[in-house]
Amino acid sequence: MTDITPHGSQPAKLGHSPVADVPHVLRATDTNPKAAKRAERQVASMFLLSIILVIAFIVCYVTIDKDTVVYIPVFGEVALLTIMLGLTSGLSILLIGAGAIQWAKKLMPDVEVVQMRHEMASPADATAEAAANYERGKEESGFARYPIIRRTLIGAMALFPIPALFLLRDLWSGGLSGKASPDEILSHTLWRKGERIVVDETYQPIKPEDLPVGGLVSAVPANLMEEQELSGNLDARGKAAIILVRMDPTEIVAQQGDGWDYQGIVAYSKICTHVGCPIALYEQRTHHLLCPCHQSTFDLANAGAVVFGPAARNMPQLPIGVDNEGYLVALDDFAQPVGPSFWERG
Ligand code: FES
In the chain, is it the N or the C terminus that has fewer CB atoms within a 10 Å radius of its CB? Predict the structure, then answer.
């Protein structure tokens, strides 16, 4: 028997409960060497399986094409690589945990200990003193003497949480405030037909020839400066921020609308559809846009599709063209809400 004796505690003998009238039940592994051996094999098998799953994770990572999708009822089309990486890594951790629990329950020493405790109740004079303090405080505050104050205070405290309910309701649906819901707010930006695309910060208008193949520019609508000065509101910037990327037109596989590029220049929202981080990490060779927050990756040559990571929606694309002076302009607002995919948005 292992001597586990916390300070002030007395160990019980194996097979004897230190608690009166509660018999200590021995486990099969305590009395049967075969059962103990079986438990040992079970635990080792779980740890071994965990090792195999880690190897399977690496094999999946190397061999499965990231573009391969499978159809799963309820979830729809899902990247096979994402599923396999999740399954193998999740199960390997689960098996380590399950093995550790099994080890502790079946093989580690099953010892009950009794820890002697001091009397928990306060001495009578301390209790009396606390009660006297309470009565004196009640008297001095006048809580009992001024019933109107007491009742109005109780009323005020009872109603105090109600504003929070209104605020939460606003967050959910726009609520009673008459303001638009978050979904409505994020569905419209400053982009509109003919709005010039300008470089972020400098507000320089952009011509197609300013952007070489492989180049990337962070841009905003030309009307943003005026909007910010008028309202002092930074939301408009957050919603309208885009990146412009130029690629060889023959490399564009798909877009969110016919002819939404201009000679290979495509414009996408800069706000990640996972939880809204701004993105500008672009890999020219693969046309992938990588979010630094949780590694969602979007394929800008393929309609902004999610190729990796937790984002659930394509990156919204902005249709673009040029105006009669040859500057890049938007042809419309985004066709879908920008930003994170809360509120079950499609
Ligand atoms: S915010 Fe972009 S992946 Fe999470």
Answer: C
